[in-house]
Amino acid sequence: MPRLNKYIASTGLCSRRKADELISEGKVSVNGKVITELGFYVREKDKVAVEGKSVRPQKLEYYRFFKPAGYITTLDDEKGRKTIYDILPPELKHLKPVGRLDKDSTGLLILTNDGELINQMTHPSVKVPKVYVVTINGKFTEEHAKQMFEGIEIITDTDEKKTAYAETLPIEVTNKKSVVQVVLYQGLNRQIRKMFAKLGFEVESLKRVQHAIITLEGLKKGQVKVMKPKLVKQLQSYLAKIQKENS
Question: Among 9, 101, 233, 234, which is least packed by CB within 10 angstroms?
Answer without folding.
Answer: 233
